[in-house]
Design goal:
Layout lengths: L22 E5 L2 E6 L12 H5 L3 E2 L8 E5 L5 E7 L2 E7 L6 E6 L6 E10 L5 E9 L2 E9 L10 E2 L7 E3 L5 E2 L5 E8 L3 E8 L10 E2 L10 E10 L2 E8 L9 E7 L9 E2 L4 E9 L2 E10 L4 E9 L9 E5 L6 E5 L2 E7 L7 E5 L1 H9 L6
Length: 366
């Protein structure tokens, strides 16, 4: 590449929920462990959030989506969408098993679905989610100062607008203290946006639109931004202009201030759900890579030192719903995801050896 080119009931008395590889039966308040799947009961299925808290699971996701981040004391935290709410699960064994520990509940409002984490300090997290009010959806953020046990009131970012969607990316915090949040608009035409806050999310700028890519593709949608160095910002952008029923492009754009962006240049993949990570001394671009010829969706990661030149994609697995979520704990680099079309299939891949092999051959990066 060129230098600047980058989820009940058994009748009324017994509720059923398959979670992991433990089979339990709960009837009239008693829990019976009987084999390889978990049955949770109530008179009318799950009795709300307090019954769901404490649920354990392994390789089956008891919800409608998930994201991951490093937790305190070598734990891993998961944001889990279930029954229209956002829950937090925790793992102390590098993601081999999980327990639901809290609900991201705020007064009089529901933050729905799984949100994307941002870590501000050893104890403080942000969670970017969706606020549901009067049948309208707003992008919002909530804050926890106790590693996800309790959460603040939800603060909207942008007002509701038909056709405006939240990019599947966290709030990004830059070295100068600014916060960035990304969106895309899919109505008369598509466009990818970034908005900025200089007061820790209290107010936000007007949306800044990314330029039309160099090849003329006008389908820009999901986007994530990253600060890879002083006066060096990079954005990865999905595009959806194609006429073959699938996303058709993946682009990179650069900026010195996060405000004025270069004309996006094709990366050469069909990519979706881009997300940036810092892995050692490298930057990682995680995304869902689509092989249109075979109809296969891969979890893929590319690496870079400067955000301009990127390695070939490292394929983690196929048949996934999202980009790989990278977590680094106890010296291990672990990629989490969940399946497609089986959304309950939870996947965990230790990619430490793969990354180390890649690093031995520095010539593949830059």
């Amino acid at each position: 590449m060129g230098g600047a080119a980058v989820c009940t009931s058994l009748g009324e008395m017994v509720g059923i929920l398959m979670i992991g590889n433990v089979l339990s039966l709960k009837l009239m308040g008693t829990l019976w462990v009987v084999g390889a799947v978990v049955f949770l009961s109530s008179m009318n299925g799950l009795r709300g959030e307090q019954e769901f808290i404490g649920t354990t699971f392994t390789n089956r996701l008891p919800g409608t989506g998930a994201t991951w981040i490093e937790g305190p004391d070598n734990t891993i935290l998961m944001s889990l969408g279930h029954d229209g709410k956002t829950y937090i699960a925790s793992s102390g064994n590098e993601g081999r098993s999980w327990q639901v520990v809290s609900v991201a509940e705020v007064p009089s409002k529901d933050v729905s679905g799984c949100g994307y984490f941002t870590r501000l300090s050893e104890t403080t997290l942000l969670l970017r989610g969706t606020l549901r009010e009067a049948k309208k959806l707003y992008s919002c953020w909530i804050r926890s100062d106790d590693n996800g046990r309790t959460w603040s009131q939800a603060a909207p970012i942008l007002p509701h607008r038909p056709g405006l969607y939240v990019s599947p990316a966290p709030i990004r915090v830059m070295s100068d203290g600014r916060w960035a949040a990304t969106y895309y608009y899919e109505k008369e035409r598509c466009a990818a946006y970034v908005v900025w806050s200089s007061d820790q999310g209290q107010t936000w700028s007007e949306p800044i639109t990314f330029p039309t890519p160099a090849d003329g593709n006008r389908g820009s949608t999901e986007v994530d931004v990253c600060e890879v160095g002083p006066n060096n910002f990079v954005a990865a952008i999905r595009a959806d202009e194609g006429h073959d029923g699938s996303w058709d492009g993946f682009y990179l754009s650069w900026s010195t201030d996060g405000l004025d962006w270069s004309v996006p240049v094709a990366l050469g993949d069909r990519g979706r759900q881009p997300s940036f990570y810092r892995v050692g001394k490298l930057w990682a671009l995680s995304y869902r890579l689509y092989d249109h010829a075979l109809g296969i969706q891969h979890g893929a990661i590319r690496f870079s030192r400067d955000g301009k030149e990127w390695s070939p994609p490292m394929i983690i697995e196929q048949g996934v719903q999202n980009e790989p979520f990278i977590v680094q704990v106890r010296g291990r680099i672990i990629a989490f995801n969940y399946g497609y079309p089986d959304y309950t299939r939870l996947s965990r891949h230790d990619i430490t050896a793969k990354v180390k092999r890649l690093l031995r051959y520095v010539g593949t990066i830059n």
